[in-house]
Each structure stands twice: as C-alpha cells, then as structure tokens.
C-alpha cells in the first residue's frame, strides 16, 4: 500500500479492514486494533472477515461473498454484531466497498455504536462536570472573601474585651468555624497554581502514595495491597504532587470503603498497563496511553450516587466532604486524561487513563 494512503487510513478514527479475494484480512488500521482489542498482527495473521462476525448473521456472510464478485456493488449493514473474542460483543454499522486493481477484495469500515455512544456520553458528562465545577468555584470565591472579614472581626473583638473576657468562648467558636470553612473552600477551589509538568515514572508516584497510606494507618490495616505493574511503561509528563493527590484520593476511598464495610480479606489491586493501540480521549486521538487501575473487593459504590459520583459534595460518608473524586478528576483532566469507574458489590475499579503525548511516544517524534 502506498505510504500516503496508509497514513490516511491510520489517521481515521473509523476502524478499517481490507480483505483479499478470500475475505482474509490483509490490512487493519489502528482504530480497528483498538475497536477489536486485537493487535494488527493477530488481525492480519490468517483471520477472515467472516470470523469476526456473529455466526447468526448468515445473510450478511452471503452478502460479503456476493460483494467479492467482479463489478459487485458495496453495501451498508446496520447493527451488525461483531464477536472478536468469545464473550466480547460489539455492535457496529458496517460499510462494505468492493475494490479491484492488481488484486480484488473488500474494504470494510466499522462504526461502533456502543463506542460512539460512550464517547458522546463521556463528552456530555465532561461538560456537565465543567459547569458544576465552575459554579462551585465561583460560590467558593464568594464565600472566601467575607469569611476573612468575619474571622478578623472576631479577633478584634477578642483583643478589645477587657471586662467581657468570659465571651472568649464565643469568639473562639467563630474563629474555629471560619477556619474550618476556609479549609473547605480552599479544597473546593483546588490547587491555585499548578506545578510545572516533569517527566516521571508513574510507579514512583504510586509507591509514594502507598507509603503515605501506610503511614496514615501506621501499618495497622489488614488490607492487602497487590501490585501488578508493567515495568516497561515509559515516563509521563506529570504534575507529580497533583498526580499523587489524585491517586491518593482514589486509594483512600477504597481503604475507607473496605474498612467501613468490614470486608473479609480486604484487598486493593493496583495495576498499570499500556493501552494497546491508539486511544481517543475527549475527542482527541492519542497514539498510546497508560492505564492505572485501582480495584477493591469492597461493598461497591452506593447505587444512589453512581451517576453523580465525580460531582463535588457527593458523599455517602458522614465524615466525607465529597471532594476527593472531584479533585482527582480535575487533576487527571489537566493531564488530558480520563477516569472511568465500574462498580458492583465485591468489585470496584477506578481506571485512570493518561495519554502519552504524541511527541513523547517511545521518546521519539511521531
Ligand atoms: N472504592 C469505593 N468503594 C465504595 N464507594 C466509594 C469508593 N470510592 C468512592 N466511593 C463513594 O464515592 C463517594 C465520593 O467519594 P469522594 O472521594 O469524592 O468523597 P468522600 O470520600 O466522601 O469525601 P472526601 O474525599 O472529600 O473526604 C464516597 O463517599 C463513597 O460513597
Ligand atoms: Mg474521598
């Protein structure tokens, strides 16, 4: 295939497969690799297009054979069920075009319906979060200014008591409560000045968080931490302190959930992996990504807060402020990443997906 044509196919976000005259797959672009969660070498290693399609769709298989005939027309099929691996199904729209030249075969384009829906949902959720966060930030600003005044006035009162010294208890309450509110407001506003990004290994950040967590529980926790790292992961450009905070917030939540539910044999698995193939995050396609998954075997996220989990002030804990996840999400977003969550009783997974910048892939320009 000509280099230009190949580059164009590679840059498409639609999955494209080319077959020969026997429907054997001879080319797959990166979007196909991602959609089918299969490496290009596996896709082009002897598989036929019909091997990917659910066997119940017999008429579709017949149409593919027909489309191979000389001068045949292409066709479109909606809602096609693809089964790349047993137990994995993907619903797609399929566009078939016949090509002939030196050889003859089919061009198959797949538009995943679930995947598209997921991207739309991600984007809608993101704009909701941004709107909620802007609202909270402006409210927090409004609260912060008069708060300073209230605290200052209480201090002045204290200084000018003279014979009313017994009133100190009241002014102390005002000062203490103003400080508490200020702390809350500062957390709501988030880090004021983000640190510059530096090249850092994600495992260094995770290890730092685990040692902090260990210090917090003074080694008294019976939670088993299982590390499953991919040591070959490249360094990422990170705001190290902020990333530490984001991961700490997620791990602390898991620790709280496990302790509060008194889960038997509590465990937290921390896994790092490289994303196979390119990844689209917030509408931008990245050549690769690092995935950090934090999985606990606790009670699961309470049903009533699942939809709004990442919103500020959403909490199920009496002592909680409902800020941990909202802050974590803000931090991951600043790294152009994404946090996903799957939760059921006995298994909650938070997945942090951090894209590799294009110019940072394997340390080379791409
Ligand atoms: N691993 C988990 N298992 C079960 N529930 C979880 C888990 N992680 C988060 N949650 C739920 O999500 C809620 C929101 O978490 P978030 O970290 O935003 O706030 P918080 O932990 O309640 O308070 P804060 O972090 O501000 O002290 C928690 O109250 C809890 O109900
Ligand atoms: Mg929390």
Give an account of the 3D structure.
The protein has 366 residues and is of the alpha+beta class. The protein folds into two domains: 3-115, PAS domain (Beta-Lactamase, 2-Layer Sandwich), CATH 3.30.450.20; 194-363, Histidine kinase-like ATPase, C-terminal domain (Heat Shock Protein 90). It contains ten helices and 14 strands. It has helices at 3-11, 30-36, 40-43, 49-52, 58-67, 113-159, 168-189, 202-216, 240-260, 324-334; strands spanning 15-19, 25-28, 75-85, 88-100, 104-112, 198-200, 224-228, 236-238, 267-274, 279-281, 284-286, 289-296, 338-344, 347-355. It has a five-stranded antiparallel sheet. Strand 1 and strand 2 form a beta hairpin. Helix 8 packs across helix 9. The longest helix is centred in the middle third of the chain and has 47 residues, at 113-159. The radius of gyration is 27 Å and the shape is elongated. The two termini are 20 Å apart. 25% of the residues are buried. Residues 359-366 have low confidence and may be disordered.
Write the layout of secondary structure elements.
Blueprint: H1 3-11, E1 15-19, E2 25-28, H2 30-36, H3 40-43, H4 49-52, H5 58-67, E3 75-85, E4 88-100, E5 104-112, H6 113-159, H7 168-189, E6 198-200, H8 202-216, E7 224-228, E8 236-238, H9 240-260, E9 267-274, E10 279-281, E11 284-286, E12 289-296, H10 324-334, E13 338-344, E14 347-355
Parallel strand pairs: 7-9
Antiparallel strand pairs: 1-2, 1-5, 3-4, 4-5, 6-8, 9-12, 10-11, 12-14, 13-14
Helix pairs in contact: 6-7, 8-9, 9-10
The structure holds adenosine-5'-triphosphate and magnesium ion.
Adenosine-5'-triphosphate (ATP) is lined by residues 249, 253-254, 257, 296, 298-302, 305, 309, 314-317, 320-326, 348.
